[in-house]
Amino acid sequence: MRLTRLRLRQFRSYAQLTLVPPAGITVFVGENGAGKTNLLEAIHLCCLGRSHRTSNDRDMIRLGSGTCAVHAQVARAQTMDEVGVRLFSAQGERKLIYVNGKTVQRIGELMGHLTCVMFSPEDLELVKGAPLTRRNFLDMLLSQGQAAYFYAIQTYQAILRHRNALLKEIARGRGDAAQLDVWDEQLAKAAAPIVNHRREAAFAIGELASAHYDHIAGRSQEHFTLHYQGHLADSLNPAEDLLAQLTVSRADDLRRLSTSQGPHRDDLRLSLQGQEMRGFASQGQARTAALAMRLAQIDILTKAHEETPLLLLDDVLSELDEGRRARLLARLDRMQTLLTCTELGSVGPIQPNAVLRVSAGTVSE
Ligand SMILES: Nc1ncnc2c1ncn2[C@@H]1O[C@H](COP(=O)(O)OP(=O)(O)O)[C@@H](O)[C@H]1O
Ligand SMILES: [Mg+2]
User: Fold this and answer.
1) CATH superfamily placement of domain 122-306
2) Rounded mean pLDDT of the chain?
3) Domain 1-115+309-365 is of which CATH architecture?
4) What is the pTM of this model?
5) Rounded distance, CA 124 to CA 116, Å?
6) CA of 29, nearest ligand number
7) Whose CA is nearest to atom 2 of ligand 1?
8) Mean pLDDT of the region 12-22
């Protein structure tokens, strides 16, 4: 698929901007703080209805403005779509999502029109960071592949919030303990599709990422593996098993006022030669593993949509040695790519289709 036009209004450092990116590679070059990442973030917002770097939508609204909007026009093999998102700074105003000129009720309806894979310096957190980072990686990947998964996550999280609220009520002597049975059952039922999808996805990502790791590292004596890890990782009947686990952990949960079992505690275990990477991997190994996971994400999204996603490379090429950079770029061939850098020289021997200069809220040729 191809992003053919991007329009921003009151988005971060941009009062107003229209971009018409060509097919192939577009390079955005500019100093730190110039507004390069803001552009990629705007595209991410159109893909998933949220930022890749903040969970607070209001951060993206230009200071001093009450609202911002981003619109993207996407050309696909058969169709042309226009998607957009509008955010409001006022408390309680919901974000608006547009698909082909109409507002849609659910964010899930946005997913799949424009799909992207973002490579960013924060990807090191995929390896070094907390389990939440890896769960988000899985959830974003699966949500972009199928909106049904996104709805399943939303449902699960809503039930989890209810259960946790009830635990607190009971602790204050107000809630009805019998109600917990109802929430336990619902939580267990909602967990099943999530666990099944995550397990299947983790297996596929593991196979693909392992091959990409070998390729980028340029040697194969370091064996990279990725496994799904969680209370239900090996469960053949997640709903039934979670219900049993919740019953066992109930007294504990009532003491802690939170739910200790379930897919909200899932993780991915990344290993080199069987050793968990989180604690011991070098920067270079962690960076390579993160790239391998992103490349696997491209493979999976390409298969799900039968079209390549848009690639967003934020400041990542300058961090790589020449060999890794060349092998990475070889894998990205023929996909529409938007990449940022502070110096053109740092991106190596690529031949961009457009080079755009970014500074203080403007983009110019
Ligand atoms: N909500 C906002 N309103 C106005 N300016 C913003 C907002 N958020 C960030 N900025 C500005 O955007 C710039 C950072 O942009 P960014 O895209 O992260 O830079 P870089 O080119 O280094 O990637 C900073 O100058 C910051 O002040
Ligand atoms: Mg940046």
Assistant:
1) RecF/RecN/SMC, N-terminal domain (1.20.1050.90)
2) 94
3) 3-Layer(aba) Sandwich (3.40)
4) 0.93
5) 19
6) 1
7) 12
8) 97
